[in-house]
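Complex 228.
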Amino acid sequence: MTYAFEAVGVIRSPYREKFGIPRQPSLVNAARVTLELLPPYNHPDCVRGLSEFSHVWISFIFHQTMARGWQPLVRPPRLGGNAKVGVFASRATHRPNPLGLSLVELAGVECGNGVRLHLAGADLLDGTPVVDIKPYIPFVESRPQARGGFVDGPPPQLTVRWSEQALRQLAALAAPPDLALLVEQVLAQDPRPAYQDDPGRVYGVSLYCYNIRFGIREDIATVLEIIE
Ligand code: SAM
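Predicted structure with S-adenosylmethionine bound:
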């Protein structure tokens, strides 16, 4: 059985590549993410009443990785990148149907010259196609007593420090006001692949139009340089 869907909207986010995007929504709330609705869904009627909800479910396509197909077993980063679980016991991007589902805060609904939803805490790549939007209904969907399997709580956080050079560069940039906080929240998540521990290595993460160079030694991430 085959079904075809079309995108109802597209994500505009500071995450310009997969590396560094938080592994789940709500872990990094500094990211300013916008969902732009596409015609014919960009009519105010389609979102009437939505602003009364604080959170929405975003159904989207893992468009950047879908060409790589799927495997029945995956290695979740939370299990250290070695142990395998079934694809349907994971939130992995490589799935039989490349559909993602994120619960995010709805910070605002903007109508006028199209329709835009302002989202906080999204884990979505810039350009992600969105196939559906639904309001989150706490009394039906909140399950505080639910078992979380191998994901039993938020991941440990790294401490983030800035080099003198990076601080000077940050001060000189005409960067979005949330850049510093965004960098700190993204690096605190430890974006490295689960199996990697190379204190001499310099990593780069793309946020907005900036490449943030950083290193990680023990539990401290240091921002080394910001390249425009
Ligand atoms: N919350 C969603 C879910 O559970 O379906 C996504 C979870 S998935 C583990 C989160 C990761 O998806 C992010 O860290 C990022 O690397 C990746 N991602 C986000 N947008 C993507 C896209 N459009 N294409 C491919 N990968 C994407």
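The chain has two domains: 9-141, 159-227.
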